[in-house]
Each structure stands twice: as structure tokens, then as C-alpha cells.
Amino acid sequence: MAIHNIRGKTGEQLAAEYLITQGYDIRDMNWRDGKLEIDIVATDKTTLVIVEVKTRSTDKYGFPEEAINEKKIRHLVHAADAYLKYTDIPFETTRFDVITITGEGDDRLLEHVQDAFYPPLEK
Predict the structure, then answer these.
(1) Which residues contact 119 (CB under 8 A, 6 or more apart)?
(2) Less Cβ crowding at N or C end of the chain, within 10 Å?
(3) pLDDT per residue over 61-92, tens digit each?
(4) 22 in a domain, yes or no?
């Protein structure tokens, strides 16, 4: 496995552990439906939380959150829709969060942005 893939999986695991310490329940990790994927599906009381995790060893080439563009947001919204249809579990609300992790080892910085974006209107 390439080093960036290992870094990504490590970041997702760190993000899941962080969410658990914050009282979230982890429902799924790396949930897939065809080409659709969600890094972490969690619940926060009555809210379904779709979490995109971005991990970088450095911010030399930009901050991790900058990789979440309009195309990625649309992909996540379609994935969340597929997840809701697949599980058929009603939630009062759905929220899209982003967790970024920058750095390596003990110098990692984890940031959690709740309601990082709202689903765009279909064109």
C-alpha cells in the first residue's frame, strides 16, 4: 500500500477515535456503494453525520480542507443519499462534517468542522 494510502487510513482511524471521545457513535467506516464512498458515518444524538477526513503530512501544498471542492461535495451528497436509502433508517437531520489532520506523529493537528457545507441545489 502506498504511503499516502496508509496516511489516509491512519487519519480516518484517528478521526474515528476522536469522534468517539466526543460522544459520537460510529456506524460505518469507508462505506461504499459502487464509486460512492463515505469515510465515516456517525451519529450525534438524532443527527446522522457524514464525515469527510482529509489527512496531509504537511500544509506545504495547501491545507487539507482545500481538497474538498464542489465536485467532492456533490459526490458526498450522492453517497449520503445512497446510504440513507440503503439503510432505510430515519434520522431527524443529516450533517456534513470535515475532519482535517495535518502533520505526523506527535505533531499532528486535528481540526473538526461541523456543518462544513450544505448540500448544493441540483442544477
Answers:
(1) 73, 77, 80, 96
(2) C
(3) 555 666 678 899 999 999 999 999 999 888 88
(4) yes
